[in-house]
Design brief:
The chain is about 45% helix and about 10% strand. The protein is α/β, with parallel strands linked by helices.
Length: about 260
């Protein structure tokens, strides 16, 4: 009888493992279709990523061509969370200074991604930063109720960050922030995209080869690793049955979703 129970238990366990063990590996074009009709906001790191994407488009015009990337230099998470445009570092769209919500309202994306926090800096004020995250989720839900809101984890920093920015133990605090950012997203119905681990070395800091200033900004190699981390996230969503290519892409894309 015990032998029979073990056999049944093994069969049940194997039936759960097999689908994941043999999950189909999607090619890059299919993986990147996840970001079709998406709007991505960010700071100088996203400016760098946009240049990286534009470089790829020189030889492949279709690369992320339905993704709108809107960076704004030294913008902070706090400034981006506001409902009115003011200050030196805000978003521009077609030559006009607009809030994230104003841009989203005009584009009507299917997904909104946000990667902000380096300029606050969020790991020094975690509770306050997460309140801004909640503000963005709620206001974005009101602005584009049919869109999925996604926060991309903060990128790691190098060991040089502490002396450069005159803070202590920033990466440890940043890990705590990313952990709580994930919890905040889950609690408020948003998605969390972890790209931080893919950019770290064995010392838990941003790999020096991935940084062009050896402090916090990403190099060409770092942007390539960021892109791969985004693709790995999509593959994971597919493996878990949380996304299927073309599943929700039945309506024609709005005219303004082409990336600039």
């Amino acid at each position: 009888m015990k032998h029979l129970v073990r056999v049944i238990a093994f069969f049940l366990l194997f039936s759960f493992i097999v689908p994941f063990a043999y999950a189909e590996k999607l090619d890059d074009k299919v993986l990147l279709s996840y970001f079709d009709d998406s709007l991505i906001f960010g700071d100088s790191r996203m400016e760098s990523f946009k240049r990286f994407v534009d470089g790829i488009r020189q030889t492949d015009e279709s690369f992320l061509d339905k993704t709108k990337i809107v960076p704004a230099g030294s913008i902070s998470l706090y400034a981006a969370s506001r409902t009115y445009p003011s200050g030196d570092f805000l978003f521009y769209y077609h030559g006009r200074q607009l809030t994230m919500y104003g841009i989203a309202d005009r584009i009507q994306p299917r997904k909104v991604f946000v990667m902000l926090g380096l300029n606050d800096p969020v790991a020094v004020k975690i509770d306050k930063a997460l309140s801004w995250v909640e503000d963005i989720i709620h206001k974005m839900n009101e602005t584009v109720p049919d869109a999925e809101v996604c926060f991309i984890s903060e990128t790691p920093v190098t060991e040089n960050f502490d002396s450069e920015k005159k803070v202590e133990g920033y990466q440890v605090s940043l890990d705590e922030y990313n952990k709580r950012l994930k919890e905040t997203c889950e609690k408020n119905g948003a998605r969390f995209v972890d790209i931080a681990h893919a950019l770290k070395g064995e010392d838990n800091f941003l790999k020096l080869d991935y940084s062009n200033d050896k402090v916090c900004h990403l190099s060409e190699e770092g942007n390539a690793a960021l892109l791969q981390a985004l693709k790995d996230y999509v593959q994971e969503q597919y493996d878990l049955g949380l996304w299927s290519p073309g599943a929700a892409e039945t309506e024609p894309a709005p005219a303004e979703t082409t990336a600039e």
